[in-house]
Write a structure and sequence with these properties.
Elements (H helix, E strand, L loop, with lengths): L11 E4 L4 E2 L3 E4 L2 E4 L3 E6 L13 E6 L6 E3 L6 E3 L10 E9 L3 E10 L17 E13 L13 H4 L5 E8 L6 E4 L6 E4 L9 E4 L2 E3 L6 E3 L7
Parallel strand pairs: 2-6, 8-11, 11-13
Antiparallel strand pairs: 1-4, 3-4, 5-6, 7-8, 9-10, 9-12, 10-11, 12-13, 12-14, 15-16, 16-17
């Protein structure tokens, strides 16, 4: 599989048979996942000239924060920090700022454009055009928009925690202050979470993350790695 132009936390990058996991990545079940948002970089240099070349080391280079725009991949695949407002059908990545009984508040960080109703289909191929929000954009995930089935059984406190990074689809322009977001697809939900002990966790199922240090698990509405 080819590497994406921009990787997000929790995104599948490749197999450990092809790469050595480096900084900004983590290994789970023989697969390498991104731990940080940024550009995947391959380092093919050998640590010693006397040693034969081994597998390339896969690392994540953090996104630049000072330049107005940065080319992060092939022509047409870039992420910029010029502001853009989400539209219905776009996919966004944001951070949970508040979790209540009826809704979860999300500060939108990045917008990935997609055809309306397609939930950002190009993005799920690992590419697409992403725009970092320069101004504050707020969204909410309502209880009924967390998943497609058994909506009455949803407990928001079990699916999200403050500080989680989530991937969600814009389903409505909402009111004057918030966009309405949905995580009711397998690819949508929490993509990065820290445990109560402050360790970055990795997903082990559609509803659990695991702390690699303590071995403890925590419930979340987990986004399927893409």
């Amino acid at each position: 599989m080819s590497l994406p132009a921009v990787a997000l936390p929790g995104q599948l990058l490749g197999s450990s048979k092809a790469y050595i996991p480096g900084s900004g990545t983590h290994l789970h079940a023989s697969n390498i996942y991104a731990s940080l948002p940024g550009r995947p970089v391959l380092n093919t240099s050998s640590p010693s000239k006397k040693l034969p070349p081994s597998k390339p080391t896969l690392t994540i280079s953090r996104l630049p924060s000072t330049s107005p725009s940065a080319d992060l991949g092939p022509v047409g695949e870039r992420i910029s920090n010029t502001n853009a407002l989400p539209r219905v059908g776009d996919v966004v990545v944001g951070r949970v700022t508040r979790c209540m009984m009826r809704q979860v508040n999300v500060a939108v960080l990045v917008v990935y454009s997609g055809d309306e109703g397609n939930h950002g289909g190009r993005f799920y191929d690992g590419g697409g055009e992403g725009t970092v929000c320069a101004d504050e954009v707020q969204g909410v995930v309502r209880k009924e928009d967390v998943r497609a089935t058994e909506k009455e059984k949803v407990v928001l406190g079990e699916g999200f925690r403050v500080g989680d990074l989530v991937r969600a689809a814009v389903i409505s322009l909402g009111d004057q202050s918030n966009y309405y977001l949905s995580t009711a697809k397998n690819e949508l939900g929490v993509i990065m979470a820290k445990s109560e002990n402050g360790n970055t966790m990795y997903p082990i199922s559609w509803k659990e993350f695991k702390d690699p240090v303590t071995g403890e698990t925590e419930t979340r509405k987990v986004a399927k790695p893409i």
